[in-house]
Amino acid sequence: MQIETTGILINMRPFSERDVVAHIFTKDNGVLVGMFRGGAVAKKNRPLVGQMGNVSWNARLDSQLGVFHFESEKNLSAPLLLNPDSLKCMNAAFALIYSLIPEREPNETLYNETIKLLQDLSVSKEPYDAYLNWETSLLKDLGYALDLSKCSGCGKQENLCYLSPKTGRAVCSECGAPYIDKLYRLPLSLNITKRFVSSICDIQGTDMPNVRKIF
Ligand SMILES: [Zn+2]
């Protein structure tokens, strides 16, 4: 079986002294897992997390750990190296994709959002705003779309002060008044989305990645 597409290298770990196992988030085939033969010792074209390029994945059987051939076109992490906050955001996004997105499930919307995040992180002075947008897309993708457009109680579009942790929908100040202790206070923040991400991790039985715990 062979897959040809484009993708971003989001995770690598040693497999042997010479080889590494990598996760590549692809445009057409979701997250692919495979091996880079000699990836740990290559002197030229060594794979690096954050690279984007053409991916070829080959395996004799569909169920096998395939082998990657990867032609990096650009390193999307390079412009972020001078900005620790941007790097943190990239690492958190990659860790969440690695932990929460099922393998080989096509996910072009999130893929495009991730490319956009990396581009935004390289130019934005507010990397955490760009990251918050991305994480909101991730939640939507996982079936937890947040609706901040109107009050879930009365339909009003003004004074939306709260967010319900149960429904992910906004609540106005009047409807929310009796339940203040149980509601999150808007505006939306990384602290709020973190709680949704954490409950998804619980449901999926995975740990919240350490790189996301810190903000
Ligand atoms: Zn209301």
Layout of secondary structure:
Layout: E1 2-14, E2 20-26, E3 30-36, E4 51-58, E5 66-75, H1 84-100, H2 108-123, H3 127-141, E6 160-163, E7 170-172, H4 173-176, E8 184-185, H5 190-204, H6 210-213
Parallel strand pairs: 3-5
Antiparallel strand pairs: 1-2, 1-4, 2-3, 4-5, 6-7, 6-8
Zinc ion binds next to helix 4.
Short description:
By secondary structure, the protein is of the alpha+beta class.
CATH class of the domain at 1-75: Mainly Beta
Q: Identify every distinct bound molecule in the structure, by name, code or SMILES.
A: zinc ion
Sheet with most strands: 5 strands, mixed, barrel
Note the overall shape: elongated
Mean pLDDT: 95
Secondary structure tally: strands? 8
The radius of gyration over CA amounts to 20 Å
N-to-C terminal Cα separation, in Å?
41 Å
> Which structural class matches the secondary elements?
alpha+beta
Query: Would you identify the CATH H-level superfamily of the domain at 1-75?
Result: Nucleic acid-binding proteins
* CATH architecture descriptor of the domain at 1-75: Beta Barrel
Kindly list the characteristics that best describe this protein.
215 residues; alpha+beta; OB fold (Dihydrolipoamide Acetyltransferase, E2P); five-stranded mixed beta barrel; three-stranded antiparallel sheet; 33% helix; elongated; binds zinc ion
Can you tell me about this structure?
This protein is of the alpha+beta class and 215 residues long. It has a domain of 75 residues: OB fold (Dihydrolipoamide Acetyltransferase, E2P) (Beta Barrel). The protein contains six helices and eight strands, in the order E-E-E-E-E-H-H-H-E-E-H-E-H-H. The strands form two sheets. A five-stranded mixed beta barrel has the order 1-2-3-5-4. A three-stranded antiparallel sheet has the order 7-6-8. Helix 1 packs antiparallel against helix 2, helix 2 runs antiparallel to helix 3 and helix 3 runs parallel beside helix 5. It is elongated, with a radius of gyration of 20 Å. The termini are far apart. The protein binds zinc ion. The site of zinc ion (ZN) has 7 residues, from helix 4.
